[in-house]
């Protein structure tokens, strides 16, 4: 990249992540890793709701999938089935882990994984074009999964939704 403006922007971005955190996002300044995941999911759902109204369907679908995954990760950590430092890089594996600890049954976990596999990549990489009905359905699914998993936890009062 030879564009000086872009190089300066890259330098600034790199420096911003090296600095001591200041002006952190409200609600996410918690020490427990499980609560960070929970509250990220809350924020993703709130953002998706706003973006749905503005017609940004692709981002709503992406945010909804990530909100589901952050909520599952919250419960895995909360229930002691996952160490906070563990990284599950496979979406399918994350959905399977949720089924393994009884957050939902195997069939539901498999359906989530297939939904992600067949549709998220398709809309994210523009192999298909996201629609309003898809975005609404995904947002509703993510909201329902989030509420169900959070309500069954011992820290539902920590939810920001």
TrEMBL record:
InterPro entries: DUF8154 (IPR058467)
Source species: Haloarcula rubripromontorii
Protein name: DUF8154 domain-containing protein
Pfam families per record: DUF8154
Span of domain DUF8154: 1-161
